[in-house]
Amino acid sequence: MVLAENVHKSFGRLEVLRGIDLEVRRGEVMCVVGPSGSGKSTFLRCINHLEKINGGRLWVNGRLMGYRQHGGRLYELRDSQVAAQRRDIGMVFQAFNLFPHMSVLGNVVEAPVRVKREPRAAARETAMELLDKVGLADKAASFPRQLSGGQQQRVAIARALAMRPELMLFDEPTSALDPELVGEVLDVMKDLAREGMTMVVVTHEMGFAREVGDSLVFMDGGVVVESGAPKRVLTDPQHERTRAFLSKVL
Ligand code: ADP
Ligand code: MG
């Protein structure tokens, strides 16, 4: 579902990703951990081409993100074509980014109606099913400011799912939450994983990584230092940098 080959990304002279090689198979959950500034968010943003990579290749579901390959050469896709590629990728951020002036239902209905031109009635029906799935059917008419952080993040997940993504990217989805609200968001993500959604999750929740992750990647300084089965990486890290990081977060 995701294949990264030698992905490089710089901002000016700052080299943030220095050759990332990763693979996520369909239905797998990959958790990504690493110190602040190691390039985790940048890597996620490269996956859905919110950032243009400077080198290497990134495929999502067999499609080269942002480019068309022809006769061994790469041609940049037009914005509309990139937008079409991105439509199959859902993203959930640390800050929930809900539309504050729209109801919960409105937030979930918006993209399918605007972007996919789904009939509003059908989109509402799907949205209600998704809100039910994240345990918020009774909040459909509420506005984001009336919800807790955990509830808002669950709405954000429902909103991403409304586009029927093949891949979900999570960037520290529980980092902005009060501790007692973390569990309800992780539970929704666990359900998603159980249903077979392919997920890349940047998180500091090592319990989640161990329980739900098929793989755990430790990034530092723009490279993958170590990756493998979560249990193995957590209990028997092979690199000093991994050990040092884990000793701080565990
Ligand atoms: P992480 O998510 O692991 O904390 P980031 O991917 O956010 O790391 O950032 C990695 C590095 O890239 C940091 O040094 C950050 O300041 C820098 N960076 C991220 N985005 C930009 C940008 N748009 N312009 C310039 N530098 C950036
Ligand atoms: Mg980040």
Structural write-up:
Helix 3 runs parallel beside helix 5 and helix 4 (120-133) packs across helix 5. The chain is of the alpha/beta class. 37% of the residues lie in helices and 27% in strands. The longest helix is centred in the C-terminal third of the chain and has 16 residues, at 179-194. The chain binds adenosine-5'-diphosphate and magnesium ion (MG). Keywords: Amino-acid transport, ATP-binding, Cell membrane, Membrane, Nucleotide-binding, Transport. It is found in: Cell membrane. GO terms for molecular function: ATP binding.
Strand order of the largest sheet: 8-9-10-3-11-12
N-to-C SSE series? EEEHEEEEHEHHHEHEHEEHH
Task: State the end-to-end CA separation.
Answer: 30 Å
Number of strands: 12
What overall form do the CA principal axes indicate?
globular
Largest sheet: 6 strands, mixed
Rg, Cα atoms, Å: 18 Å
Structural class by sheet pairing and helices: alpha/beta
Count of alpha and pi helical runs: 9
Helix amount, in percent?
25-40%
Query: Overall mean pLDDT score?
Result: 96
Quaternary class: single chain
User: What proportion strand?
Assistant: 25-35%
Which ions and ligands are bound to the chains?
adenosine-5'-diphosphate, magnesium ion
* Uncertain parts: none
GO molecular function: ATP binding
Membrane topology: Peripheral membrane protein
Subcellular location: Cell membrane
Organism: Nocardiopsis endophytica
Annotation keywords:
37% helix, transport, ABC_ATPase_HisP-typ, Amino acid ABC transporter ATP-binding protein, cell membrane, 6-stranded mixed β-sheet, ATP binding, 9 helices, binds adenosine-5'-diphosphate, alpha/beta, 4-stranded antiparallel β-sheet, binds magnesium ion, 250 residues
